[in-house]
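pinging the channel bc i need a second pair of eyes. not urgent but kinda urgent?? the chain im working w is below, pasted from the shared doc
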Amino acid sequence: MVRPRDLFVVLLDTELEQEELNWLVMPADGWEETVAVDKSFNAIRTYRVCNMEGPNQDNWLRSGYVERGEARVVYVALRYTMRDCGSISNSAGSCRETFAVYYLEKDSEAAPSASDAAQMKATYTKAQDITAEHVFVLGGMGKVNRATVPVGPLTGAGFHLAFRDRGACINLLSVRASFKKCPATIANLAHFPGTPAGPSLAMLAVAKGACVANAEEASVPLKMHCTSEGDWVVPVGGCRCRPGYQSNEVVTACTATVEDPVALPEVESEQGLSQDALGPSSCGQLEGLLRANQQLLEKQAEALGRLTRTVEALNSSLLALSRRLPPAPGEPPQYRLAEDAIAPGAGDGDGN
């Protein structure tokens, strides 16, 4: 199982592309574009809504059209602050500390879209309700909340995101939409391309593979599955190296091998092949095999001759060495004299 590190591809970011996304506010007195200051005193553009005193709030903030590309599920990462309802007087019980994320799929940017809050509610799909973990009081520093909302599965060419407020005091700092992808990989000598993640744990995306260079299919189909988290699982099928090539240790490539010496085939019977069975091509092959066999036997005979001469020289050296050694304890003296008597030059001297 392989886990990629660069999973996310940014599709939109309010801090960077707010104007291009053409955010729409419905109704006009709901969300408003503002400028806030971060901890480093850098100005950032945000969207804010804080209509808690009036009942029956229904305020929508809709993004511009975003092309889906190859994404099947989009993950919407949010940064926002939320005011504490307990610190607000005269809210008449209408204050909330939640909001919701919605989306609408469209096949083109020109397709008709909702033009008011009632149409938004009727046509958009809720992705998730968002509850703030941190809230702040008036005059205090608001701690930034973070949330990631999965949107999908998506099948259309693109989509709109929308944020619905029912009476909270929210400052939406940034919105980033992204998707996960399994990276290109090689398994069982088959290459699998980068593949967008499956829409859910129960629905895996299938990627078709192709054998690497100098390999051929050993079992089919060649495929792997990409989970919703961007992990490869369940490889099916595989490839093998073609003759003359061998796999590396990690089974990702086939490299050329050194050809083995030609081996003679086993003789099928004591009589060998009949004369009738030998055609012109068979005779040529047999002649080549006999010539190769003769060369092999000559090399073996030469090696055996060298081995024999080496053994004879070693025996002569051992015999000469044994004659120079003193008699072993308990060895009969006459045996040692007899051995000495046959040494070269034993008859020389003043002996009778």
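so Residues 280-324 form the longest helix (45 residues). and The chain has a mean pLDDT of 78. — does that match what u expected or am i reading it wrong
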